[in-house]
Amino acid sequence: MPGMTTEQTDTTPRVSPSTTSGEREALEQWLDFHRATLARKCEGLDDAQLRTPSAPPSDLNLLGLVRHMAEVERGWFRHTLAGEKAPWIYSTKEDPDRDIHTVEGDTYEEAHATWQAEIAHARTLAATRDLDDLGAGEHPKGKKFNLRWIYLHMIEEYARHNGHADLLRERIDGATGD
């Protein structure tokens, strides 16, 4: 029925952050919460649905958001925190937004696996550092960032894009929910 919405089915485990944890634990829990939220927004959809754009002229879509967040994880943790020279995953000089610009043949299976690998690598890189540790790499704007700032920025980045994901999911099949 038009105007009807359905509650989204969620199979991705998502733990609510503790209300009494210390700073680092809280930052890591909130980041993981938002990572899981994006995965939940993609559940139960096929690749064509995941490539469904929001509304013209934007071509923003759920698959593109997952690919974008894989790039963001790589950029902040590998490049800025660890100083790694890892190449971008999707973005190119010709199309710096190739992560968002999805085409037929781009799959969620590949994007999700890549995103999860970047998350795992990010966790490894952050595990041995203190929140005040400055990254070994330099951001393209020439600034240094400590791990605390990176965690806070990543939470903000996911929260903003999860808002986009809410709207995209509702447009695709009417599903709403956290």
Automatic annotation (TrEMBL):
Residues 1-21 have a biased composition (Polar residues). It holds the Pfam family MST. It comes from the Bacteria. InterPro entries: DinB/YfiT-like (IPR034660), MST-like (IPR007061). Residues 1-24 are annotated as: Disordered. This is DinB family protein. It comes from Streptomyces cinereoruber.
